[in-house]
Amino acid sequence: MLDLVLDQFPADGTWVELGSWTGRSAAYCVVELINRNKLGKFYCVDTWKGEAAIAYDPATVQDLENIFKQNLTPVIEHITMLSMTSWDAADHFSDESVDFCYVDAGHSYEAVSNDLTAWWPKMRSGSLFAGDDYTKGYPEVQQAVWDFFGPRDIRVHRSGRCWLVTKPFDDSSLI
Question: How confident is the model at residue 56, as a pLDDT?
Answer without folding.
Answer: 56
